[in-house]
Amino acid sequence: MATNESSASTTNVPGFDAGSNLVVAVAERVGHVRTAAGELGQKAVGKLPGIVLGLVILVVFWLLAKTAKRAIRHLARKMDPSAHDAVELIARCASGALIAVGIVFALDNAEVNVGPLIAGLGLTGFVIGFAVKDAITNTLCGVLLIMYRPFKRGDMVAITGIEGTVKALDLRYTTIAGDGKTYLIPNTTVFNSTITLIKRP
After folding, report:
1. Are 55 and 106 in contact (CB under 8 A)?
2. Eight-class DSSP state of 77
3. How far is CA 58 from the centre of its chain?
4. Fold of the 48-131 domain
């Protein structure tokens, strides 16, 4: 009879049931975490070859981009110096295109769905383009100036009241040196202004 009373008093200790339930819940949670970690590890191992191959593809396309840029620039040395700006534009575009293609192929081999990414980039590009429309306008005007070549390096010109020798023409600015100063004129201003060709070398 004394034994039964002792057992009853043991099982009815306050907080004993709550503590045991907590231990069970923690054990179950740890088990779930271990299972999820194991599944994640298996997925990572399964995708590892694709990720490695994607990195290799990205490196290959990056090297191709640098090689293409160097090759185009090397060819430019044998051409008319007045065409150097246009060749430089082509080199940069070719390099950028190769890198972009490499990124898409690398993500595809890493089993990343590039469809939504490309669609998102299109929307993002529209927003960014609207925000930097002045820079884009400058770039487009630079492309048109390079294509139509109203002047070339070494020409003495007058643009918006600035007179000097054309030193460089890139995608953003036309560089003119005169009176001991160097002027960087935005291509938009050059494209929309009257250009006076004073002298050619």
Report:
1. yes
2. T
3. 13
4. Helix Hairpins (1.10.287)
